[in-house]
Structure prediction request, 891 residues.
Amino acid sequence: MKRKSFKILITLFFFLIGHKVFALTRSEAKHLLARTRFFYSEKDLRFFMKQDKLKAARFAIGAYKGNQLKKETPHFLVQLRRKKKKMIKALRKEDWKSFNREFLFFYNNYLQESKKNMMVLPLPESEMSKREARRMMRKIQNFFFPRLQKWWIRRMISSEEPFREVLTLFWHNHFTTSFKAVKDLNLLYQQNELWREKALGSFGELARSAIYDPALGLYLDLPKSKKNKPNENLARELFELFTLGIGNYSEKDIKEASRALTGFRYNRLKDIYIFNEKLHDGSNKVIFGKQGNFDPEDLIDIILKKSETSRFIVKKIWKEFVHPNITKKELDYFSNIFKNNNYDIRKLFLSIFTSDSFYEMKNRGALVKSPIHFILSYYSFLNEKGIRPKSFNINVIMRMSKKMGMELFNPPNVRGWTGYTSWINTNTLLQRKALVRRFWKYRILRNSNIPFRKERFVKKVANIYLPLPPIIDLGKGAKSKKVFNLLSGPIFQLR
Amino acid sequence: MSLKRRDFLKIVAGLGFSGLINPSSIYSQLNRVQPKAKGREGRRLILIQLIGGNDGLNTLIPFEDDIYYKSRPKISLKKENVLKINSEQGLHHSLKNTFSLYKEGQMALIQGVGMDNPNLSHFRAMDIIETGSSSNEVLKNGWLARTFNETNTSYDWNGVVLGGGFLGPLRGDNLKSLSLKNLKFFKNSTEKLQKLNIKELSLLSKKNEALSHILNVEKSLQKTNAKFNEINAMETFSEGKRFPLKKQVETALTLIQSNPQIPVFVLTIPGFDTHRNQLKRHEVLMGNLDQTISTLTKGLKKIDQWDSSLILTYSEFGRRVAENESLGTDHGTANVFFALGGKVRGGIYGKRPSLKNLDKGNLVYTTDYRSIYYSIQKKWFHFPKIERSHKLISFV
Prediction:
């Protein structure tokens, strides 16, 4: 009796107070933003503090944005693609005259700025060979590589859908591919757009696209995989790193799966992979105890039927977006949701970001900012306050990210960046601190109207941009250094 | 009130400046007083990593083997130029200083080093050789990080990686391994560090693993700062002509002199992936290696640390026996490692891999690379706890 009337009272109370009670607290809003964006502003935080959990999660994920994703091909690439095609055709015919004509175009147009990157000189026709020609083409690719990196960084900064960009990086680090190995900017660009486009779709679809992706295939030796001599590299990584996780398959499964994956052919002129039935090993295979003349599509179906896949992906997502360790209960719950919803990534994230587990206190500030997270957070802070020196530009972001151990498009190996605490060693932490110092200009500060010496402002910065209370004593020390100390201190490294 | 060790060191360093005491000797004595590792104290390993896959066959040349000359008609090295170490093998002609160390009996050549089912990808092969795994096993931590972990050593620092990159064979040991590129930058930046009240912080970070990791790195940086203040008083090593690794060598020597207890240093030389025009490029690379070794050796002798140092070169793999069409060589397998030091038993170790019985054009290894690691753990550092099934080699 008593309990019932109490319930009614509570309901009434919430009804009257309305969404204000359900709105995110400051700490909750910060937590959600830190996990779904590379950086956020004071305005973003205020906006999220007005939303309830569901609305906030939807905004964070980028619902309400419709399907307006448009590709923004970097300018340099349009030209590069066209020229590349011509050069490949010339190379095949060993028509060195036309080849040199195309090469000279790059040589004359870009030599000025490329003293370091393009030291190769055009060769006379008599000295040309296929090998030389390929080397010259690689030099061109190397030259333009920083532009592709900068294109991506610009997207990260200006995207309308910040979470999609965060996920693009996440999938780039999941289905790893490196420029060092692939050496082709168009392939990397296409792959990058693929991760972006499918970032929030179905994981099954994503995995399927991954094995048709020429950059990934080249990275994992798929072209070397022949019907009579299959290469196991892709099959192994597909199981171990992309879907099932180590220990959930046998060496035999890998051998059989690698046969199922034969038959892809890379069309270099169109930069696509085509599955050719004739090159495919169509004979009988046994994978996970099932028999059939499986092809690549079947293989993905088989993988998706296994609950280990769902568990492996949920675990990895948890590690990157919630907490380094997932409890068994949470893993059971979310991997069921993931699998039962046809591996719908958007739904999985929605259920995570509206759950109580996500908002648990122990998760706040429990992750480490990647170099990109860190640099962009600082960059956007300075921008927002109008105190960013001009010298802090995209070029610097690219170079510093590499110095801190994260060169975009070049993860160290097929496992990708291991992230979390591995981001911080003595060298990288000093690099992070040096970056903050380098662009913290008192000359600019004094000319701005930022009250950077005022106690109130220091506290405000801590409240908005730090995931946890600062552990340095805000009352002590030189007044002018307080904000600087916050930004180069340990808490700002977290998210 | 007792004088803090750090303050004391500052005074000592000051005295050193005025020429009264040699600061380095006092410093090293101070270090010896401290409780130290259970292994052999004061010994160190200096790794020189040759990135890209060094060509073992053109480093240690089998100049009496016809197959060598037949497989490499254009890029083989002539018998008369080779620095002969015995009647059938000799070193690359650019390794002159290294060769004289061999003649003095302070250099061991370990040949035919490799593993079962070698992987020919740079990244994977480097992963394998740095973690000390077998080729089908993925280990997270570097072989040295695992060694220090297993032996519960108590060095202030376990190692320093001088390129400023990832920790390589020390990976997984972020708290006691330093990665640094530029000593000046490192020193300046550590001096500018804000003081953190670590005690207070440890309480806060108890439940947050990420935070406690960062605080540990901060801690080791602050500790570094306290010690690196002494570096000014040390000898300078910046004489001699320039070569690519000069900076790394100088930094290593400076650090060794100021902190003789650090057991591991890692230096890296890139560029060994000689797919094309190998003769010229390899000659330059061997010259660099020779310079690196001789400058290190001279420096170590100067500060009386030659006997306590073991220099080891390694590379992710060797190269194909036959040359390719672009006057280079492709990724291969078994390779030769150098070990140098005052206490090294000079000579040539391991069986020479046959040039006749190849596996897909590659040498078949005769010594498991982990035997070298195990010998270093057992015979150089004398870590009693380490037990492996690999054979021991007695080059130290």
About this structure: Chain A touches chain B through 41 residues (CB under 8 Å). Residues 2-61 of chain A form one domain. Strands of chain A lie at 264-267, 272-275, 285-287, 290-292. The longest strand of chain A covers residues 264-267.
